[in-house]
UniProtKB/TrEMBL annotation:
Its main location: membrane. It is found in: Cell membrane. It is a lipid-anchor; GPI-anchor. This is Fasciclin-like arabinogalactan family protein. InterPro entries: FAS1_dom_sf (IPR036378), FAS1_domain (IPR000782), FLA_A (IPR045003). May be a cell surface adhesion protein. The keyword Coiled coil does not apply. Residues 1-24 form the signal peptide. One of its GO terms (biological process) is plant-type secondary cell wall biogenesis.
Length: 255
């Protein structure tokens, strides 16, 4: 009797194992999640044409697709609307180099997943994917239960509705283009180049005025003295000659 019961129990266990699907079978039957398509998400939003063009022209769209396949921290994209780009000053985008346009696009991508609740607890400054050899591009986030604002140092932008909010990719709409201080901040005025010190000419040695006057005066005084002495001798000779002549005439008158 006991052996019969044991036999029937084994049959029941074997039958149940054949009826239950294995884990491998469940995994094989479950649909494979489709790869995340950033372009499709933005196209569905219907007002992000300019941002899509920039993502493609700068090759950032391809970079995002690759990152989303291997990310552990997730990614957050802050997507400006077409109206946000239209409100920029004329020539703003065309005035940027290809490298600067790439940095502007990457400035709108955060290298981790942020939900509205994690925005409230994040620490500032928040690093963006534009950070690299050209510098560290960051933003400051202020958040309440109903609103998220992002400050760049040049302007402040409000995060509005979410186009996608599931990990690993969050995509939020912006009503303005975020302008990084590194590209659009006020630059300090360029300092004037230092002037080379002026080379002064060697000073000429001046001859003292007294020495010049004395040197020139000495010959003149000597010549005047010589002339005076000569005139005095001549007068004496004339006087002596006149006296002798008078004495001689007087002697002759006695005879």
């Amino acid at each position: 009797m006991a052996s019969t019961q044991i036999f029937l129990l084994c049959i029941a266990i074997l039958g149940s194992s054949l009826l239950l699907p294995t884990n491998a079978a469940v995994a094989a039957d479950s649909p494979t999640p489709a790869p995340l398509d950033m372009e499709s998400i933005l196209v569905k939003g219907s007002q992000y044409g300019t941002f899509i063009k920039l993502l493609k022209s700068t090759q950032v769209m391809t970079q995002l697709s690759s990152q989303l396949k291997n990310t552990f921290d997730g990614i957050t994209v802050l997507a400006p609307t077409d109206n946000a780009f239209n409100n920029l000053k004329a020539g703003t985008l065309n005035g940027l180099t290809a490298q600067q346009q790439s940095e502007l696009v990457l400035y709108h991508i955060l290298p981790r997943y942020y939900s509205f609740s994690t925005f409230e607890t994040t620490s500032n400054p928040v690093r963006t994917q534009a950070s690299g050899n050209e510098g560290v591009y960051t933003v400051n986030v202020t958040s309440t239960s109903s609103q998220v604002n992002v400050s760049t140092g040049v302007n402040q932008v409000q995060v509005t509705n979410a186009l996608r909010s599931d990990f690993p990719l969050a995509v939020y709409s912006l009503d303005k283009v975020m302008l990084p201080d590194e590209l659009f901040g006020v630059k300090p005025p360029a300092s004037a180049p230092a002037l080379a010190p002026a080379v002064s000419e060697p000073k000429k040695k001046k001859v003292p005025a007294t020495a010049t006057t004395t040197t020139a005066a000495v010959p003149a005084s000597s010549e005047a003295a010589d002339a005076t002495t000569s005139d005095a001798g001549l007068r004496r000779n004339v006087e002596w000659g006149f006296a002798l002549a008078c004495a001689f005439v007087g002697v002759l008158s006695l005879f």
